[in-house]
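For the sake of transparency, this paper describes our internal protein records without simplification. Because each token names a local backbone shape, the row as a whole describes the fold. One such record is reproduced below, unchanged from the form in which we store it.
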Amino acid sequence: MPHELSATVRAFLAAGTLPLSRSITRIQEMLRRADYHAAELADHMHTDPMLTARVMSVANSAYFAQSPCETISDAVNRLGSTQLLRIFAQVLAGAAMVEPLKAYGLPAEQIWRRAVYTAVGAELAAARKGEDRSVAYMIGLLHEIGKLVINRQWARQHSAKLLAFGDFETGYSADERARYKYDQAVLGGELLKQLAFPETVYRIVRTQYRNPQEPLSRALYLGRLAQAVHCSALRPEPDLRVAELFDLASNRKLDAFLTAVHTEAQNRIQVA
């Protein structure tokens, strides 16, 4: 089964369906080396104008800029590996979500909205527990990327029947597994693994429909909860144990959290 899963994702990537995947994989493999050099990284990024433009934009933003970065090498040095990974996740997600997911009946703008709300929710939840906000944001932004693999399989079968939504806890996973053997979480985790994202990122994406047992898994759960409320007009009853761990057990505190997610997500969407 692991070989079949790996082969399914490799075929998806080989088809060129996911823009920028090769560039991001190569750069992330460089970042994982203890001896990577900014100049080497910059040389590779010069071949990808979209990545270069985004990195330069962030490096010269008001948050990071003490003086302007004139070269991509300067920008790489200024930002560091954590911020670069976050940028790569944003660029990959943005490039991947320009087409509708017809298998799910989701237009492109709704896919991006869902990603941003989940990412912001996970980020704000992580901050409440002192966890890594950038990693939580990456996980939330990319948590549904496996839907791209499912959508391609659906299109190749010329199916007219949309995938059936189950509930908040499991999403479309039951119908995905029934039709395509794997759900989007498992496919998404394998996809991010093959794209050389950190183990924490692809592992938590892969296990998102399981009972959350670690802080970043719980942060993603709360991000998904915010997405369900604000993007799908659902109001699922939250897992009480998770809510208590994040001091969100009362309706007042949970509503305040969801409002904060909505405000910040709208700001991110407007400036994207």
The mean pLDDT is 87.
